[in-house]
């Protein structure tokens, strides 16, 4: 895994995103830099998923600018994303990763070594030959992470990666993300789970109604939130 990337920092400057005349993101200005995971939190409908997809480059801004390492048109060759409900191909566990590798610049001679390495990282090496669609939900999510990591991303994006998982499967995913972050991969994720945010985040971005309410270190956010909205959100109160 690379310890640096020219895609970082990812800078949002007054970014707005509209869909059907509705403002989804409103004047977003944030910096996503190398280091510990950046975690987007906020109520349902706050814009977390849209912000995540804009950060990887899947959604262009309606106005404002996003740059990756100072460039506005950086190809996403070193970025990968894991969705909340990833699709499993009708292939084996190893076959799913082999398929992902086919679209990369990784030499074919290195594919089997890469497959073994990422399956070991996510604890699925003993299931390499099993049909991916016969895995449990937690195992499928670990495979989705492995499939993304096979591309050797410098930035890994995840959208609610543990939303439908039980506590044991959630812990497995969180352990993998800690290991990935320790290897120098920048983790950027959205979650509705404040406990997960506390456990993983180095930086928190709180969204509400498409706007950034508060951003900064996770320690400061949870210990001494600077806004009333953040205090209410941490306390489990409804944000209006």
Report on the structure:
With 240 residues, this protein is of the alpha/beta class. Helices cover 32% and strands 23% of the residues. The chain has helices at 48-56, 93-101, 111-121, 137-149, 167-182, 194-200, 218-223, 228-234, and strands at 10-19, 22-28, 31-32, 38-41, 63-68, 79-82, 155-159, 186-190, 203-208, 211-217. Strand 1 and strand 2 form a beta hairpin. The model is unreliable at 1-5 (pLDDT under 50).
What are its keywords?
single chain; 240 residues; alpha/beta; Rossmann fold; six-stranded mixed beta sheet; four-stranded antiparallel beta sheet; 8 helices; 23% strand; globular; disordered N terminus
Can I get a quick summary?
The protein is of the alpha/beta class and 240 residues long. The protein has a domain at 10-89 and 151-234: P-loop containing nucleotide triphosphate hydrolases (Rossmann fold), CATH 3.40.50.300. The chain is built from eight helices and ten strands.
- Approximate strand percentage: 15-25%
Structural class assignment: alpha/beta
Query: Biggest β-sheet: count, sense, barrel?
Result: 6 strands, mixed
Instruction: Average the pLDDT over all residues and give the rounded result.
Output: 94
Q: How much helix is in the residues?
A: 25-40%
CATH C-level class of the domain at 10-89 and 151-234 is Alpha Beta
Summed up, the helix count is 8
At the fourth level of CATH, the homologous superfamily of the domain at 10-89 and 151-234 is P-loop containing nucleotide triphosphate hydrolases
In the CATH hierarchy, the third-tier topology of the domain at 10-89 and 151-234 is known as Rossmann fold
Overall form? globular
Q: Please give the CATH architecture of the domain at 10-89 and 151-234.
A: 3-Layer(aba) Sandwich
Give the strand order, joined by hyphens, for the main sheet.
6-7-8-4-9-10
- Taking pLDDT < 50 over at least 5 consecutive residues as the criterion, the unreliable ranges are 1-5
Order of helices and strands: EEEEHEEHHHEHEHEEHH
Could you tell me how far the N terminus lies from the C terminus, measured between alpha carbons in angstroms? 42 Å
Oligomer: single chain
């Amino acid at each position: 895994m690379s310890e640096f990337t020219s895609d970082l920092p990812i800078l949002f400057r007054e970014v707005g995103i509209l869909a059907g005349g509705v403002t989804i993101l409103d004047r977003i200005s944030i910096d996503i830099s190398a280091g510990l995971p950046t975690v987007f939190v906020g109520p349902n409908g706050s814009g977390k998923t849209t912000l995540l997809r804009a950060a990887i480059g899947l959604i262009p801004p309606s106005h404002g600018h996003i740059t990756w390492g100072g460039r506005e048109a950086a190809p996403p060759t070193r970025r990968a994303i894991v969705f909340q409900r990833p699709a499993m191909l009708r292939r084996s566990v190893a076959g799913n990763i082999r398929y992902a590798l086919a679209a990369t610049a990784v030499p074919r001679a290195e594919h089997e070594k890469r497959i073994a390495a990422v399956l070991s990282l996510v604890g699925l090496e003993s299931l390499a030959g099993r049909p991916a669609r016969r895995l449990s939900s937690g195992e499928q999510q670990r495979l989705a992470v492995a499939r993304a990591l096979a591309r050797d991303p410098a930035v890994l994006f995840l959208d609610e990666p543990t939303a439908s998982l039980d506590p044991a499967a959630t812990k497995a995913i969180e352990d993998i993300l800690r290991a990935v972050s320790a290897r120098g991969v920048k983790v950027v994720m959205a979650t509705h789970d404040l406990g997960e945010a506390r456990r993983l985040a180095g930086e928190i971005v709180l969204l509400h109604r498409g706007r950034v309410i508060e951003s900064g270190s996770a320690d400061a956010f949870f210990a001494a939130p600077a806004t009333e909205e953040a205090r209410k959100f941490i306390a489990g109160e409804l944000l209006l």
